[in-house]
């Protein structure tokens, strides 16, 4: 069983995309937190050549050491 999970969110880069991906990442973190997950790291990255903005969320699974 994996102790850590990495979630990825991808949005097209455009008007207010950073705010939209931030809100979606926050919703995912809140949802997983209530399931017992703990946040390890959250990283946002922009792929200029592809036109996307990414959120990588690393979380520790419940009941793992």
Strand content: 35-45%
Main pleated-sheet profile: 3 strands, antiparallel
Report the mean per-residue pLDDT as an integer. 92
Compressed to H and E, one letter per element, the order equals EHEE
Report the structural category: alpha+beta
Indicate the multimeric state: single chain
Tally the beta strands. Answer: 3
> Unreliable segments (pLDDT under 50, ≥5 consecutive)?
none
Euclidean distance between termini CA atoms: 11 Å
Strand order of the largest sheet: 1-3-2
**Spatial extent as radius of gyration:** 13 Å
Number of helices: 1
General form: elongated
Features:
28% helix, 65 residues, 1 helix, alpha+beta, single chain, 43% strand
């Amino acid at each position: 069983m994996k102790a850590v999970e990495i979630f990825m969110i991808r949005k097209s880069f455009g008007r207010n995309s950073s705010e939209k991906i931030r809100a979606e990442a926050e919703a995912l973190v809140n949802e997983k937190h209530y399931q017992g997950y703990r946040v390890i790291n959250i990283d946002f990255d922009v792929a200029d050549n592809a036109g996307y903005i990414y959120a990588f969320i690393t979380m520790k699974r419940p009941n793992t050491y």
